[in-house]
Amino acid sequence: MVHGMLGxxxxxxxxxxxxxxxxxxxxxxxxxxVVTQVRVAERDGYDAVQIGFEEVPxxxxxxxxxxxxxxxxxxxxxxxxFSADHPQDHKPGDVIKADLFQPGQKVDIAGNSKGRGFAGVxxxxxxxGGPKTHGQSDRHRAPGSIGAxxxxxxxxxxxxxxxxxxxxxxxxxxxxxxxxxxxxxLILVKGSVPGARNGLLQIRKAVKG
Length: 209
Prior knowledge:
The chain is mainly β and 209 residues long. It is built from three helices and twelve strands, in the order βββαβαββββαββββ. It folds into two domains: 4-115 and 168-205, Beta Barrel (Elongation Factor Tu (Ef-tu), domain 3); 116-145 and 155-165, no CATH class. The strands form three sheets. A six-stranded antiparallel beta barrel has the order 1-2-11-10-7-12. The model has no long low-confidence stretch (mean pLDDT 93).
């Protein structure tokens, strides 16, 4: 069995449990995904299953990409690899649907966080800011000292400063699957997941669950 699949974030909503409790959930349009290649240790040096997501017309892909996808019998926009219990049990063309996961199961979800543009240290790193009194008129959101003078005489690499915020790969672990609707290719996951609506997500079986 493959340990993960691809999907897109639909949005957030609320569901009610049998006890009447309100649970915030993220709705994910998961799959269907198609197996495009099987990696084996004897040939590739590792075991994995490559799957594809989102069918596209031929004009959207190059000739080499179309040739790679020919064994699967379908042209797909996005390709990713996941580990599997027995990769040799899969073959190109196999379809993976949302019922790969079950309610109550723990999953890890990765995606690209929302891009926030250029941000200061208060917003980007949670700095406290400078004093609001004693004549400080322009230090309220400043970073303060960024290093000593003569020694080392430079700014240390990795120093937390203002800069571009967000737009990076983020993974949230051990999220609970609340419900699965395989006929609609939907997965309902408790809590929030990285990224904006319609963002690409990688959903896998929790490694720490």
